[in-house]
Amino acid sequence: MQGKALVYDMAVIGGGPAGYTAALYAARAGLTAAVLERTAPGGQMAATGVIDNYPGFDEGVEGFLLAQKMQAGAERFGAKTLYAGAAAAELSASPKRITLDSAANGGSSELLARTVVLATGAGPRRLGLPEETALAGRGVSYCAVCDGMFYRGKTVVVAGGGNSAADDAEYLARLCKKVFLVHRRDALRAAPARQRALEAAGVEFVWNSRVAGILHNETVTGVRLATDGPGGATERVLPCDGVFIAIGRVPDTALFAGQLPMDEAGYLLADETTRTALPGVFAAGDARKKPLRQIVTAAADGAAAAYFAGEYLREHPARP
Ligand code: NAP
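That is the input. Now the predicted structure with NAP docked in place:
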């Protein structure tokens, strides 16, 4: 499959569990499928340590390994991975036209396909501090499992109060000298038993507080904390070597704004068939508005997307 003029049956934007499952089902059904993946396959799954809740692995499975297996499983039936991001997508065109951010399609930076599966997933929500982006990788992290080892024996702050923040604090407490969990409320969203377990592991909670600034030289040296009190907010500096931000996720769907209906948070609107408002365009996985976002539900979306894309292709045969 090379050259500008080739039109794939299916382009999949995003190589996480939704994307590679769509590619697997499509390729196994005899369709040509190309998966666009910017870095490494697996999406959020690849950045997860051991996954215990994906069926079929009685002792759990490393996220990175499961990602590789999903990619290999789709490629076994002929699906291609193009290592590029989508810079633009014309989803109403016929065929649909995706502009790549590099010439990854056999020397071309254009990908044509009769159907498109949008499986871009979600990324970390940012605190929105001016220095945050520049410090990413230099003391600011959004993935404890990926970066925790760099903070062995050091002091870190975890920002957030949901299950991700609790998971990160628990993971980091095994590696770090000291872990502070900074949350803007006076209790975690997680069950009280979880809070007690974290305290027992040595995590120190800083309640009613926000990370209002990140102090740094070359790397992070501390955070400026704003703590709400009866007389208003007070500020203090908490020295630390790293800040792990775990305050939820946002869908990676900005590229499709104006072309497809989304909810107020940016999740794509599609029902269980994954069909969007545009014919031949499907939304699968965490980027879709849905009640439960898990690897297994993303994979299920991918299967549905491929099935209904196949139906669409049969109903709209290619012009000779
Ligand atoms: P989440 O449940 O939405 O929690 C986000 C947390 O960050 C909330 O405590 C929120 O505070 C806080 N927050 C949001 N914006 C903030 C800001 N600008 N500044 C400071 N704090 C902010 O997100 P999540 O923890 O990433 O989890 C996402 C979903 O995955 C949840 O359904 C979760 O249960 C699930 N999950 C499950 C597991 C598990 O079962 N082990 C692990 C990870 C994730 P408020 O409380 O004030 O809103």
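The chain has seven helices and 19 strands.
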